[in-house]
Q: What sequence folds into this?
């Protein structure tokens, strides 16, 4: 599998934010500080922005990389397909 040059730095996100956010103790201010640090560093590129949010339908966390100029979502995890699937599974319970 070949990684597009635009996304090569995505693998560095965890290491970059690791000093501020720990999986077992992550909280909203720590996550926001890490996201701000990543965005200010331009680790994702000059015209890219990282955003964390919560899907209102499923309450799942969503990570997006956006084009700052256009607001276009470049990468979204989980994808909209997975969010729709999760919503349908939640309705079935």
A:
């Amino acid at each position: 599998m070949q990684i597009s040059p635009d996304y090569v730095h995505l693998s560095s996100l965890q290491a970059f934010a690791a000093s501020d956010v720990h999986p077992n103790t992550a909280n909203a201010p720590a996550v926001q500080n890490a996201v701000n640090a990543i965005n200010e560093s331009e680790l994702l590129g000059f015209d890219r922005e990282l955003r964390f949010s919560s899907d209102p339908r499923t309450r799942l966390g969503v990570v997006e990389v956006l084009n700052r100029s256009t607001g276009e979502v470049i990468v979204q995890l989980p994808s909209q397909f997975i969010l729709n699937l999760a919503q349908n599974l939640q309705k079935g319970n």
Observations:
- The first helix runs from residue 13 to 17.
- DSSP finds three helices and three strands in the chain.
- Confidence is low (pLDDT under 50) at residues 1-24.
- Strands lie at 48-54, 61-67, 73-77.
